[in-house]
Amino acid sequence: MPSIRLADLAQQLDAQLYGDGDIVITGIASMHSAQVGQITFLSNSRYQEQLALCQASAVVLTSGDLPHCRSAALVVKNPYLTYARMAQLMDTTPAPAADIAPSAVISPAALLGDNVAVGANAVIESGAELGDNVVIGPGCFIGKNARIGAGTRLWANVTIYHEVEIGQRCLIQSGTVIGADGFGYANERGEWIKIPQLGTVIIGDRVEIGACTTIDRGALDNTLIGNGVIIDNQCQIAHNVVIGENTAVAGGVIMAGSLKIGRYCQIGGASVINGHMEIADKVVVTGMGMVMRPITEPGVYSSGIPLQPNKVWRKTAALVMNIDEISKRLKAVERKIGKDDTQ
């Protein structure tokens, strides 16, 4: 990790410096593990007492927590956001590829912009267009007539099918597949007849997609992923799904076909969302949510039974299995009470 003077770091982060600006910062660490030469952050005042034990050379925090800090400090309004920007400044992640590897197979009919890098054994088919500063990792496949915007990076073994369009400054992690056929079939007397998927996938700018996620191409219309969307690992986005800008999708989420999700939503991990319906803007679905009906109003929505000790869960399950009988008995009691009241 590169080293930087604390004063220089404060200037780049637009932070207010308290203490020795000549301290050299060589890394970022959590509060409980930070050592001399490292910087940490306090984003929640509930953990304020940890400042007394923290060994970091500097701490990023708010003005309200500053009196409890024994080391140098960078004071900001949002320490967690500043941590994100600080990590970007000190990031040492290598590029997925550098230059164009001799083993890369690139069609003469493909169009590559300036400063494009293509890793070993990658394949780029005819008609594909790559913007300036695009990086294609080893083993990637870029299908016919696919378009990838400037500054987008693909890690190893990403598959981009034909006609797919990806915007600028996107990041796609290893093993992801974009543009595979959606799950479209018609049934003829028990035999499944495949429906060719004639749409494609269009992804906006600044989209990040985790490892081993699949985004299917549309059946007729296109699958659309808006600007600024972030999608975690191992998600399934079915054909014709539309995800609005700046929505976040956590790991293991399954979205059925022709679902429309609004802007600024947050979908918790392992959630399952039915297709052919809409979810409004600014909706939060907590983890393992099962969304079977449209959501028309912003807010936080949950489903499922949280983890319980086994003995307690068995009692809960028994009550759930008998809820119909309990309901009938309750209604009978209500009818009797109502009849007694009228006599």
Would you give an account of this structure?
- This protein has about 350 residues and is of the alpha/beta class.
- It has three domains: about 5-90, Udp-n-acetylmuramoylalanyl-d-glutamate--2,6- Diaminopimelate Ligase, Chain: A, domain 1 (3-Layer(aba) Sandwich), CATH 3.40.1390; about 105-300, Hexapeptide repeat proteins (UDP N-Acetylglucosamine Acyltransferase, domain 1, 3 Solenoid), CATH 2.160.10.10; about 310-340.
- It is about 15% helix and about 25% strand.
- It contains four helices and 38 strands.
- The chain is flat and about 85 Å long.
- The protein starts with a strand and ends with a helix.
- About 35% of the residues are buried.
- The mean pLDDT is about 95.
- It is an enzyme of class 2 (transferase).
- This is UDP-3-O-(3-hydroxymyristoyl)glucosamine N-acyltransferase.
- It comes from Chania multitudinisentens RB-25.
